[in-house]
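Q: What structure does this chain adopt?
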Amino acid sequence: MEFTLVKQNSEKLDQARKYVKDNMMKVINQPHRNNYHVMPEVGWLNDPNGFSVYKDEYHLFYQYYPYATHWGPMHWGHVKSKDLIKWEYLPVALAPDQKYDANGCFSGSAIQVDDKHILMYTGHVDPKMSFTGTSASDAGEVRQVQCLAVGDGINYHKLVHNPIISTEMIPANSSLSDFRDPKIWEKNGMYYCVVGCRDSDESGKIAMYQSANLVDWAFVGILDHSQHQLGRMWECPDVFELDQRDVLIMSPQELHDEDFRHKNGYSTVFFVGKLDYETGKFDKVSFDEIDYGLDFYAPQTTLAPDGRRIMIAWMQSWDRNIPSDQYGWAGSMTLPRELKVINNLLYQIPVKEIENYRQNEISYKDIPVSKSIQLDGINGRCLELEMTVDFTQANQFSLKLMKNKACETVISFDKESSILKFDRSHSQSGINQADPKDMREVPVLLKDSQLKLRIFIDTYSVEIFAQDGQYTMTSTVYSDLDAKEIEFAAEGEAIVSVSKWELQI
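A:
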């Protein structure tokens, strides 16, 4: 497949690449960096983009503003990996340098076609913004269109024919300003993409397009429409087949909380059902929030060479202070997760590759816990914990992480209410102290009176996988790095088996 590309070098792209090269060593060796989560070399990171396999390697792009630790005109940062755990930084892939993306290369996706790596992204134009994000003009309105860039895994060139889905192709009764985040895939020799948008009724929906050649696209239909039931804008959609089901995931904005769901205001949800490729309609049979933690947004998936469906997300939420900005970086990705559909529910399992980095195992079996105790060797700040807690004779159980005399972060379960709770309100993180946003809860059903947990701790994050991945809670925790103690406690007598591994990447 041949494309006509913009060949000239981009001054803004060269500028971004040079800035990263000149400034990354100021922050790259700091102890405050993550050990095994993707993060920027310097500056700001948000949504994962272009998560794909190209020439037998995993490629991950991300929304990137290298010049500061806050959001700005979006570029695409770029890393690659052979195993989803150890990532190699590559030069900035895209910069906002064309008329149709002058104020940002917003989120999108990627696919390999023949020997080419195709990026599909949103071009963002806001006449009120200059390149630095400051006010430049009061004329005009925001416009978002869909564009292609073609590359070799390092360097990418934009199509002369961009935008490939222009303002004139936006579905009827849709916002021209909120039309973004294309996810592209191939099925039976045709290419499809879904795009998040906002209806004229001011609620979110997902549009679907198809193409035979990646350049000429036609509107198929609207997968689903919020109709004011689930937020005012649906961002970052993804559609894939898994375990003989179709799955739609996306990130609705401006939600009102509902019981235990949507406490962050900017949520992530999944629908399991059936997609009609002729009409573009998605017939959903189940729905839920993807992650019940404080910091999880804009997930994107790819298909691994061995057939696994792998998901990664921005390990952050909007409307947060991000204390790591004092160290020259802001924003991380989650640990990649394998997805499975079981009984129409979306399960998440840490990718098996992380087990290759386990070191220095320490295990205890059937330890009775009826008061606060610590176990020799069960401590640290870059580790994996695997636990089973038997509640036959216990009413409550708590696990205190990232603990010292001044701070602690608490995971607890109450048998009577069946509530699993994550609480960072005493972590001294400085994110939203004394704010309800520092705690999250999710109902979890015990199995044979047992709670199974896998917990991953990195420099400033905690990821919880409960009951074999049926429930997850992902959160950042910016506690002092010397807070390394782990403490167990129970009301009644809990029987605890636990294994701990250091993770050495």
